[in-house]
Amino acid sequence: MLQTQNIFEKEFAKETIFLDRNMITPHYTPKVLPFRETYIEDISNLVSKTLKGQKADNLFIYGKTGTGKTSVTKHVMEQLLEFASQKNLPVEGNYVNCRNHNSKYRILVKIVKEFYPEENFLGFSAAFVYEKLLDYARKEKHLVLVLDEIDKVKDLDELVYGLTRCNDELDKGSISIIGISNNLMFKDRLDPRTKSSLCQHEMIFPPYNAQELSEILEQRTEIAFKPDSVEGSAIHLAAAIAAQESGDARTAVMLLLHAGEISDKKGLRKVTDLEVKKAKKKVEEELIFNMISTLPEQQQLVLYAISSLSVEKKPMHKITGAIEVGVLFSGEIYDEYCRLSKKFKETTVSARWYRQYISELEMYGLIVSTNSGKGIKGQTRLIKLGFDAEKIKGLIEKELAT
């Protein structure tokens, strides 16, 4: 019987222009974070109080995706904990991605599990887990809790109020919070007590400009690609596209990553402008789907109502005889949203908050809205989805099912 070659032998033997592909993925956090030195210093100044046995003030960081919020915060925390360990200081930290742990109970369990790795807290009440956290801090520990994508927490007011007020019960030790959010308007929805507790200090991370993105990409290219395998013009083009779209470093990095993959697939030895242009559509689609998955559930429900109606509704016929495809009335979307809220057992927000969600979805570029104008009886707001309705509907269904 003939020995057949392993199916992966051919793939393994392929030439690649990557030196280390992992270095050009959005998940890699570089040790040097250019153009964010001021923010690193400001956050360091805040958390450094813990090294002197004092409680650090709470901090709320927000800004668009890809502006370095998480990378900077993780970098500062790594440095803080490394220094504390070297000096044998009772400072500890914990990072929680609130998209994966989206309730007070899940977050508390995630935190205490790391402080008590030998114990199992599943099945115990939130009050019990909360007390365990306090007991740990009472050992004269100063804890800094990083809550990333904090806007995804369902019972956030209860969580933040509890964590910030727990210091009143601590004679020794302390608990501080760093909250991170991509949602620029999220703070406005917080309960006044929560806002005053969480937002002792605030930082807004601005988007990067084209020149900054070029330098970031040049830095990444040196460690991710083989020498002279990426043309300078390709780097500048990726930076220009990302700066024009959002100022998002992730967009720029993903453009070069996919451009490199296209080059590899074609057996090319260089990444040129052409590969970057071809990568643009795929990256845009990935970013849109990623943005949708990070939206709070109420916004996802509004977007789900829009995508569902866009799929089902027939084209609109105007009095003038013109036909509009995929155009919806604001009122019918709200009615569908209310129906879906009941179906998924979610609280239905008022019409005022619904209009706020519509404005935010438009700000993110997910929908387009206009006044009805000529050809339609009365005055109303017309809304149209900016992307493929079937794909968005399917994506949100997966998100709501989790």
Automatic annotation (TrEMBL):
One Pfam family of this chain: WHD_Cdc6
Keywords, comma-separated and alphabetical: ATP-binding, Cell cycle, Cell division, DNA replication, Nucleotide-binding
Positions of the Cdc6 C-terminal domain: 303-396
GO annotation (BP), single: cell division
One Gene Ontology MF term: ATP hydrolysis activity
InterPro entries per the UniProt record, alphabetical: AAA+_ATPase, AAA_22, Cdc6_C, Cdc6_lid, ORC1/CDC6, Orc1/Cdc6_arc, P-loop_NTPase, WH-like_DNA-bd_sf
Domain AAA+ ATPase: 55-209
Source domain of life: Archaea
Residues noted as binding ATP in the record, renumbered to the chain: T67, G68, K69, T70, S71, Y208, R220
Cited NCBIfam families: orc1/cdc6 family replication initiation protein
Biological function: Involved in regulation of DNA replication.
Similarity comment: Belongs to the CDC6/cdc18 family.
Protein name: ORC1-type DNA replication protein
Species name: Candidatus Iainarchaeum sp
